[in-house]
Amino acid sequence: MRAFFGRARKVLIVTAVLALTAVTLVSVAPWLLQRADMARTALPWTPPCVVHTGEGTVALSRQEAQRATTAVALEAHGAEDPDTSGIDADVRERLRSGPPADAGPSLTCRASGSGGLERQKLGESGLTPRASQVRSAMEEVFGEQSLGGYEPGGVQDGHGEDSAHYDGRAIDVFYRPVSEENRRQGWLLAHWLVAHAQTLDIANVIFDDRIWNVHGSPGGWWDYDSPDPDNDILSHRDHVHVDVQQGSE
Q1: Residue from 154, 155, 135 nearest 145 by CA
Q2: Cβ-based neighbours of 75, under 8 Å, separated by 6 or more
Q3: What whole-number percentage of the chain has pLDDT above 90?
Q4: Would you place residue 39 in the very low, low, confident or very high pLDDT band (cuts 50, 70, 90)?
Q5: Nearest one of 166, 147, 146, 164 to 156, comparing CA atoms
Q6: Are 130 and 244 in contact (CB under 8 A)?
Q7: In Å, how far are 50, 138, 154 from 236, measured between CA atoms?
């Protein structure tokens, strides 16, 4: 009899703990979602990408984010009949118009560093093969672009200390002069790069005083710590910076 009451007490305790947990989740979940939206993150238990529209937050798979950013970019660059079927209308509009001036980036994705990547040497263009792959992928979607940050033989100055530009891992895509239209065009590319970061082994995307980093990607985009916030070049307001993962020896 004593053993029976002991088991019954354990069952009651477990039931009470489960009930308390359920109540806590119900009460805390809205706060977590609100915090996630404020931080502009993709929550760990949701699909890996999110788009913040004027109507709310839309979760996307990585493939959906890649398809949406590609279709919108092709559409914006005059491609004939880009396939936009099945893409949420609010997502399409926000990606097309870019984030409002008083808001953060519209799209973010979680990604992880690709373990086992080998360190690469400069090619003839001054880029590593991984960086060259990013350049080719951008050209396929965005057409001819104003590029810089690399040159045959590599660059040795003009960038910050330990810059990925010196390793041939970085490309700058210029949108000059700084204007609302060029800001919109820059975000078309920046969002596309983040959506494709896992596929292209991208490490960092910087634009409009914001940075996305593969290791910090669960937290979304972050404010960029510019050495001179008033300088359009150093704050990356006139160009999108993208660099690829370094790899190991």
Answers
A1: 135
A2: 82, 84, 96
A3: 69
A4: very low
A5: 166
A6: yes
A7: 23, 18, 21
